[in-house]
Amino acid sequence: MKATRILSKAAAALVLMGSMLAQRPPRDPSQSPAALPRLKSGTPQTYPPEQIQAGAQRFAAQCGFCHGRDATGGESGPDLTRSELVARDVRGDQIGPLLRAGRPDAGMPSFSLPESDLNSIVAFVHNQMDRFATLAGGRRTVEPPDLATGNAADGQAYFNGPGGCSGCHSPTGDLSGIASRYKGLALLQRMLYPSGRPALSAPKAVFTLESGQTVAAPLVAQDEFSVTVLDPLGARQTYQRSAVKVKIEDPMSAHFTQLGRYTDGDMHNVFAYLDTLK
Fold first, then answer.
1. Whether the Cβ atoms of residue 35 and residue 29 lie closer than 8 Å to each other
2. What are the phi and psi torsion angles at 159 (to 5°)?
3. Kind and range of the H or E run holding 7
4. pTM beyond 0.70, yes or no
5. Among residues 42, 124, 130, 273, which one has the fewest Cβ atoms lying within 10 Å of its Cβ?
6. Average pLDDT per consecutive 10 residues, the chain (278 residues; last block may be shorter)
7. Is CATH 3.40.1400.10 correct for 38-133?
């Protein structure tokens, strides 16, 4: 129950952050790519509906994990409906060479696709760009500049001081280069509620026996009254807190506590500081 309330609080913090961003007055277009009018194909291009549909399937299978199934950005790839390369492309003359060569420096592999599949993907991407260009307003996602409102020096002071972050983290250790691995909203999410890769150490329960010896076991669940762990054979065992001496060691606990302490300014300042660790 307690863990559920904490998780709900973490989710609420992210929702609140999104709400605050949505309520802000529009910025000067030069300050945020999200405020700029959407790009559209520089050369008008039309494609048969069946080719676009086939392209949607091929794109989802080959490109969707990184760029999202709708080409608006995903796990690690950018929003292709805002891509200048796509806007310049004329029936694959830009997209085709990029797909075949890949971008190893950016983690994009090369693809060896039949011409028909390549043409279908091109048709789908152009259709998506032009379709989103017709929507009212330019904003659809949270762009990194939208979050760049904090002061990095103040964030560093909070990180090393009242925030207590430096007790577990180091800018030259586990956080080295974090801003190169996570950008924008992904970095904020990693900061508020760490998940993904590299994975954090799993929580464990440390029992103190009558002899004074301690025994640790992987934690499965806990509440105010009981603790459930995995025994050496992988079976679940539940113990009443009143009957055992147990301490929970969870690397996430400090983050849960911190969610209740952050002010809006602290949150943006720490984010600004982490964004300098490239």
1. yes
2. -60, -45
3. helix 2-23
4. no
5. 42
6. 45 46 47 60 87 90 85 79 89 90 82 89 91 66 75 94 89 90 83 67 82 85 87 87 85 78 89 92
7. no
